[in-house]
Amino acid sequence: MTTNEIAKKWHIKPEQVRIWCRDGLIPLADKKGVFWEISKDAIMPPCSSCEAVHFLKVLIENSDGKKVESSFDDNKSKEIYKYLSKCGFITSVKGNIEKKFKFSSITDIGKDFLKKYTESRTKAKKTRKTKGMVGLDVGVAKASVESEIAREQ
């Protein structure tokens, strides 16, 4: 299915689907040229990519023995946990949410998602900085030309 078809199925904007695909939050999506091909069996994420990353980082810290609280309420945590375990980002553990945070672990799919998300954010920051620098260079050049013209007059 295309991003537009999935967006209609899930009643959301196609851009949101593309963002989730780009970030790796929909593991059943493959990029074919400039388009995404998504399995009809794909599940709609219950959260943003940023929230999934936060959830995974809290899970990592709790499994390392630290007691870190999630910023999500229990229902949201359960939704995210269920999605991430169904999609293979984390191992599934039965019990309450505290037990799940303590004993679940991140799979290779989850690690790939974290890596992909971090890389896409790093790339986006570099692009914004470069665009800002280009604008600055153009502004400096323009000011230089304007001052040269003023001197000639």
Structural overview:
- The model is unreliable at 134-145 (pLDDT under 50).
- Among the domains are: 3-38, no CATH class; 49-108, no CATH class.
- With 153 residues, it is mainly alpha-helical.
- The chain has helices at 3-10, 14-23, 49-63, 74-86, 97-103, 108-152; strands at residues 29-32, 35-38.
Report the major sheet: 2 strands, antiparallel
Query: Low-confidence parts lasting 5 or more residues at pLDDT below 50?
Result: 134-145
Helix proportion range = 55-70%
Order of helices and strands: HHEEHHHH
Please state the average pLDDT score. 81
Rg (CA only)? 22 Å
Number of helices: 6
C-alpha end-to-end distance:
64 Å
**Overall spatial form:** globular
Task: Give the amount of beta strand, in percent.
Answer: 5-15%
Number of strands: 2
Strand order of the largest sheet: 1-2
Oligomer: single chain
Q: What structural class is derived from the secondary structure elements?
A: mainly alpha
